[in-house]
Amino acid sequence: MPRIAGIDLPENKKIDFSLTKLYGIGWNSASDILEKAKISPDKRTKDLTEEEIATLTKVVDSYAIEGDLRRSIRQNVQRLQDIGSYRGVRHNRGLPARGQRTRTNARSRRGKRQTVGAFKKEALAKMSPQGTKTEGEAK
């Protein structure tokens, strides 16, 4: 099983698909990498020779992937939070940072729904301190 950038690539898949398993490499960059390395995208990962794997590794090293990419993204978000920008505040609060609506939707950022309903008088009376009276009892 070939390893590139510390990640084991799936053997029985085509190499263009296998490269997308690396964080930071999608379909377009995978095809660019294969074009630069002069490797056919139809080739299976298990059929690659040692020289082809070496050239792939060399080409992939020129891209920001895996840990370096994650670190740079985290630093960018941290910078936004430190300067107190709107986007940084939205990241802190776990809300959408790019102008999406939050009255409805935005469930992937806001989490599971928490129902906030009206209280009944009995439940409100139990929650209020014993000595005080609510509006309805004062009359």
Describe the structure.
- The chain is mainly alpha-helical.
- The chain has a domain at 3-63: Orthogonal Bundle (Helicase, Ruva Protein, domain 3).
- It is built from eight helices and two strands; from the N terminus they run ββαααααααα.
- A two-stranded antiparallel ribbon has the order 1-2.
- The radius of gyration is 27 Å and the shape is elongated.
- The chain starts with a strand and ends with a helix.
Report the mean per-residue pLDDT as an integer. 87
Briefly note the structural class of the backbone.
Answer: mainly alpha
CATH architecture assignment name of the domain at 3-63: Orthogonal Bundle
Poorly predicted spans? none
Radius of gyration: 27 Å
- Strand adjacency order, main sheet: 1-2
Report the sheet-strand fraction.
Answer: under 5%
Note the gap between the termini. Answer: 80 Å
Biggest sheet record: 2 strands, antiparallel
CATH topology of the domain at 3-63: Helicase, Ruva Protein, domain 3
Task: Summarize, please.
This protein is an all-alpha fold.
Write the layout of secondary structure elements.
Layout: E1 3-4, E2 7-8, H1 15-19, H2 27-37, H3 50-60, H4 66-83, H5 86-93, H6 107-110, H7 121-127, H8 135-138
Helix pairs in contact: 2-3, 4-5
Highlighted features:
two-stranded antiparallel sheet, elongated, 139 residues, 2 strands, 3% strand
